[in-house]
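Can't attach files on this board, so I'm pasting raw text. These are the components:
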Amino acid sequence: MPSAWPLTCLSKRTPGSGPGASVSGKERAQRQAVSSDQIEQLHRRFKQLSGDQPTIRKENFNNVPDLELNPIRSKIVRAFFDNRNLRKGPSGLADEINFEDFLTIMSYFQPIDIAMDPEQVELCRKEKLRFLFHMYDSDSDGRITLEEYRNVVEELLSGNPHIEKESARSIADGAMMEAASVCVGHMADLPRCCGGPVRPVAVIPWGGPELPCAPLPLTA
Amino acid sequence: MAGRGAPGWGLLWALALALGGLPRARGIEEEPGGAHGSEGFQVVTFKWHHVQDPYIIALWILVASLAKIVFHLSHRVTSVVPESALLIVLGLVLGGIVWAADHLASFSLTPTVFFFYLLPPIVLDAGYFMPNRLFFGNLGTILLYAVVGTVWNAATTGLSLYGVFLSGLMGDLRTGLLDFLLFGSLIAAVDPVAVLAVFEEVHVNEVLFIIVFGESLLNDAVTVVLYNVFESFVTLGGDNVTGVDCVKGVVSFFVVSLGGTLVGVAFAFLLSLVTRFTKHVRIIEPGFVFVISYLSYLTSEMLSLSAILAITFCGICCQKYVKANISEQSATTVRYTMKMLASGAETIIFMFLGISAVDPLIWTWNTAFVLLTLVFISVYRAIGVVLQTWVLNRYRMVPLEIIDQVVMSYGGLRGAVAYALVVLLDERKVREKNLFVSTTVIVVFFTVIFQGLTIKPLVQWLKVKRSEQREPKLNEKLHGRAFDHILSAIEDISGQIGHNYLRDKWSNFDRKFLSKVLMRKSAQKSRDRILNVFHELNLKDAISYVAEGERRGSLAFIRSPSTDNMVNVDFNTPRPSVVEASVSYLLRENVSAVCLDMQSLQQRRRSIRDTEDMVTHHTLQQYLYKPRQEYKHLYSRHELTPEEDEKQDKEIFHRTMRKRLESFKSAKLGINQNKKAAKLYKRERAQKRRNSSIPNGKLPTESPASTFTIKENDMEFSDPEEAPDNGVEDMSGGIEFLAGVTQDSATGPTAGIDNPVFSPDEDPGIFAQVPPWLSPEETVAPSQRARVQLPRSPGTFRRLAPFRLSTKSVDSFLLADGAAPESTHM
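---
Top answer:
Structure tokens for the assembled complex are below.
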């Protein structure tokens, strides 16, 4: 696991100035975490969520009314307490998170600055990917099993009352198979991730670099 | 082109001559007709004048369409020269011929025809197939370019031309400031038809395309307002324009644009509502789409609102509900009709632009004016784009790069809208109309031909990111959905109102209210993008499977037991009792729509022939989702096909799932022989990939953080109904049934299907034991049957159930062939 603190891979960006804003080379060089304005804003929100407590518990997220309709709500909330995302351990869930942890999670959603050097971009993307992967991999064993994937798909489709569970399952199965076939197709390129041709494991294909790495929005 | 196109060109010449000759012929032919008219009843009369107008129109359309065929005879030409440019040149040539023959420019693009008949289909097509998400995601950018950009272009071009005019460079023109501004406003707008025609062939990335194209659509409101305002100012005369009039102009902009949009949305609502109730009039269903959207265009034209905006938004808003409501056939009809109309209209527009230019009456040359117009529109467009992008990039998440800006500036093509507007000018008010017309024609030709010709090399040279044309993967759809939810959740949590927040709220609103009103009950159920992708992928696999089978000879691809094909031990003639048992089992299991024909077949089973028939039938029903051959020609105007599809689709869907579960299951159980076959399969793959670095299937262990793997071993089948009972429950389809037959006769304890990709690999020993003569593909297939099997290349090894079928056949095949040698090893 790379030791890089996720915030460090975020380039300085003042709120309101998009990634295209002219950032001088000097500024670009000295990478800075989320800007202080953003931190302040997030801190206000954090206090609002926690009810002026130093930490947030899972229940606090129930107070966000808009979140209620989100079908994968539980997965998302869980991600906030996932030790892997918080960089506190290889598995398990934290009971409560403080503001720093909150910031750590939020920092996963910073846009990638295309002006950064490729290594940094790569690192950032990996971080984002890992975050998503952790969301799917609920038992923290480093693998997304079919059952886990089915779970996610079922939750995803639970917003539509007309889709039966069986349909959701079979979609998950189909996606898994597709993953397998895509993975086999790219096996030469992804030997580590797929484990070579003889090991029948599958990777979730990201459909090229664009999909997962699309800059997640500036959320603060 | 000269070589290959020559016959085509000859044909066109002939046609053109015929067209030129026809009007003259009329005069000659009519006389005898009139003279003999009084001699009583005529068996045959020649009434050219009777059909003249529609005849000529039809002929022109035919000529344009034939020209398209000719252009596409040579791929090399069309890949370099955009079709629109070719059509303009063709129009020039044809116009020249007609003029040479007749000295009469009788054909020209009139504004009425253009605005009422040619433009609406193109814009409707654009709206109806608009990628909504992309469009609304970039709406801010598009609006800025469309409104500010167009005003900027109009103002700067008009003012600069006026400035140059004052300097006296243009000589003596009878114009004033307002005339120049009027000209500027009509030449400023980027033309949707031209942009679409050129950009469709260039394939720049979607964002760039949607920005340029969206701008060209939405700037219509600005153009209409500017044009109307300045025209009325010109009519009033420069001295009489007051400040109030200017304010009125600004107000009218909002009225025109918002009003047009509202009209469009209202008609979209109406259209969606109407299509909800067309279940019993399927055959006229597609008509509603066209008629109601056309009405939205006419309505807003009537109210002097922006008609283009109206029909665009009508298409954009209705597409979701209409596509869900109308039947699949109707959707296809709508799609093709719309594309046909749009493409036809586009063809005619460009050809007639060329023809219209061949008219000496309109030509007034003023070198300075023409050249300066060209320079100004290009330069100011570039400046405008750079300025606006600079502002936009402060807010855009993905900034527009310099390359994008270059393409956007260069892609500002002017087209038929400008031409139609300039022709509409009143010569009594705008005394230099002819100069304006000829300049507009030059500008249009320059942008469409020169820029259209060079934009492709430019895009290649600048290495502009191209669009990827490929089908969405099921996983991509799923993850995309998950991303949407995650992002909107994060925006919720961080308390920020952004794109995702709005989209989320909108989709909730849509699901809760709009869809309930506007969508059919049945459509609401199946209306899910992910389900759709899944369905489409299934469909595609089924089609490719069938196509492959057909290619290899009729129905031989169905692994049916037949008497004349007894090469394989496994495919012994099934004993009648077995058949009976299976059939009755089948009937007991499946008393649904799919089985109806089975029941009818029941009476005449017994014989093997019939069994085969039945299996064939069943397979066809299962795997040929929409077999073309099964469409009967019904000579009824109101019925097209029986409506059994939905039930069938659902059945197929569930069957597919079951099959998939089955394959997972058998992979889990992993019965020996099948596994061996699978192993064989894998080994072939392994060899193909030359990936011998991992010899016995052991994976280099990864750290938990870096493994993005999904392990098959962890699969659990806890659901009792999917109990690993060798798939007995799941033997519902004809193919499983067949598999049962095979199993019984082969006396082997076989699992139904094995999915080689997912089969576990616990025992590398077996892998080593596979006889060497079995491994290469060629030697695996010594039997007759083997030759009709489907290819086992990774490309065809795809995800879904129909394919499962083929895998199975391959596997049982390998079983058949491998049985004897392997038994010696055991």
